[in-house]
Amino acid sequence: NSKVIQTPRYLVKGQGQKAKMRCIPEKGHPVVFWYQQNKNNEFKFLINFQNQEVLQQIDMTEKRFSAECPSNSPCSLEIQSSEAGDSALYLCASSRLTGNTEVFFGKGTRLTVV
Amino acid sequence: GEQVEQRPPHLSVREGDSAIIICTYTDSATAYFSWYKQEAGAGLQLLMSVLSNVDRKEEQGLTVLLNKKDKRLSLNLTAAHPGDSAVYFCAVKNTNTGKLTFGDGTVLTVKP
């Protein structure tokens, strides 16, 4: 069973508001991912970290999304100015390595932008 | 980039029957494959992962087959029960970046 902890489980924000969600990866997992899953079950990779360093991120993440994984603190994903199209399930995942190792997901944060 | 196709999109079986889900992928260099289960309102539960040097893996009523020649991955629930009802996703991993590419999902319904 996954030990990736995501909070909050549900988040409701108005358009233009900030939305922040947190993730505690499994102990011993330095690689952390954020994915967005929309209502059509499509997954979009947002960003990944190894320890505190960003490995890759998509353009969308660079403009309105910010994320960090500080040492000794939860990782976080923040949307600076929420839009209706940001309503989705945000999934955090972690793994020991970027290579051929298992990736474990948290239960997600369901963001609704009204 | 990698593309993954998954079928069928919906699958309904009776309790005790087998349920088979198939994914095809495009990148022959892909070396790590996983199956996830997602129940309503929940995250992704890792069911099983296989490396590309494995053709077959069985665990707790699940069988994963990998055909590298045809770039095909399958999940077989050998005796499904109602608790298996969920959405199932295959995922292939880019071993350089660690990024996963997911199939479109299969909604499995197991009827008593």
Structure write-up:
- The complex is a heterodimer of chains A (114) and B (112).
- Helices cover 4% and strands 50% of the residues of chain A.
- The mean pLDDT of chain A is 93.
- Chain A has one helix and eleven strands, in the order E-E-E-E-E-E-H-E-E-E-E-E.
- Chain A is mostly beta strands.
- The radius of gyration of chain A is 13 Å and the shape is globular.
- The termini of chain A are far apart.
- In chain B, the strands form two sheets. In chain B, strands 2, 4, 5, 9, 10 and 11 form a six-stranded mixed β-sheet that branches. A five-stranded antiparallel β-sheet of chain B has the order 1-3-8-7-6, with no helix packed on it.
- Chain B has no helices and eleven strands.
- Chain B has 112 residues and is mainly β.
- Chain B has strands spanning 4-7, 10-14, 19-25, 32-38, 45-51, 56-59, 62-67, 72-77, 86-93, 100-102, 106-111.
- Helix content of chain B is 0%, strand content 56%.
- In chain B, strand 7 (62-67) and strand 8 (72-77) form a beta hairpin.
Q: How are the SSEs ordered, and which strands pair?
A:
The complex is a heterodimer of chains A (114) and B (112).
Chain A: E1 5-7, E2 10-13, E3 19-24, E4 31-37, E5 43-50, E6 53-57, H1 59-63, E7 65-68, E8 75-79, E9 88-95, E10 104-105, E11 109-113
Parallel strand pairs in A: 2-11
Antiparallel strand pairs in A: 1-3, 3-8, 4-5, 4-9, 5-6, 7-8, 9-10, 9-11
Chain B: E1 4-7, E2 10-14, E3 19-25, E4 32-38, E5 45-51, E6 56-59, E7 62-67, E8 72-77, E9 86-93, E10 100-102, E11 106-111
Parallel strand pairs in B: 2-11
Antiparallel strand pairs in B: 1-3, 3-8, 4-5, 4-9, 6-7, 7-8, 9-10, 9-11
